[in-house]
Design brief:
The chain is α/β, with parallel strands linked by helices. The chain is about 25% helix and about 30% strand.
Length: about 240
């Protein structure tokens, strides 16, 4: 008897919520530039205004569209309308999975694939192979695989790279062609400069201390200028090695 009552109740609920009067009438989307509105609407395929809760909409969209950075959802039950206001992620860098291969006894870089990276360390779409771009280029030599929507770097690594780029440009008038991550978990980083030499950093230590040491050694010791430099190694605390 209980089973029959429960079954009838479920049938009643299914019929009740399938009534036309409860179907979503309008979905308004604002703030999207690259994300197609039809893609968003196709995800919201539950139709019924009562089943389309704000939390459910938010969770579904953030899970299925990594390009979304911020999302606000409002429901109007009387008008059967859903309003979605979103902000898309902005590019912080392009990260490329890279490996060293030998070509006639010379090591060269081979790029596997590239992705756009946001300022939280999350990759959110595929990117073209690039060089000399205004956007930061990160080469990852760790041989790991990752997929769109995955957080591949902690924010402290992102902040380290951002701080380094800004300091080198503003304080030393030096551009970086690319930042090379040499291992995973990230430990050492090589910054390839536009002048042909490179800088080695320890990502587990304070960026500001290493950058101050870099400026000091350039100001005080590299008196003949930077054109003859091969590298500067800042990885050892209270020591700077250069050649």
């Amino acid at each position: 008897m209980v089973i029959i009552i429960c079954s009838l109740f479920l049938i009643f609920l299914a019929g009740f919520f399938s009534l036309h009067v409860f179907k979503i009438k309008t979905i308004e989307i604002t703030g999207n530039k690259e994300i197609n509105s039809e893609e968003i609407k196709s995800i919201l395929n539950y139709q019924n205004i009562f089943l389309a809760t704000e939390n459910r909409i938010r969770n579904d969209l953030l899970k299925k569209i990594p390009l979304i950075s911020e999302l606000e959802v409002k429901r109007n039950l009387i008008e059967r309308k859903i309003e979605i206001s979103l902000k898309e992620k902005e590019d912080f860098a392009i990260v490329c999975r890279t490996e060293k291969i030998k070509n006639k006894e010379v090591e060269i870089d081979q790029t596997k694939n590239c992705f756009y990276l946001d300022n939280k360390g999350i990759i959110f779409k595929e990117a073209p192979q690039t060089s000399g771009s205004l956007i930061i280029l990160i080469k990852d030599y760790s041989n790991r695989d990752y997929k769109i929507g995955e957080k591949i770097f902690e924010e402290k690594i992102i902040n380290f790279i951002s701080e380094t780029k800004e300091f080198l440009l503003s304080e030393i008038k030096l551009q970086v062609l690319d930042f090379d991550i040499l291992s995973f978990p990230p430990d050492d980083m090589k910054a390839i400069t536009s002048e042909g030499w490179y800088i080695l950093f320890n990502l587990q230590k304070n960026a500001a201390d290493q950058l101050s040491a870099l400026k000091a050694v350039l100001d005080e010791k590299v008196k003949e200028g930077r054109k003859n430099l091969q590298y500067i190694d800042l990885r050892i605390e209270n020591r700077v090695y250069y050649k």
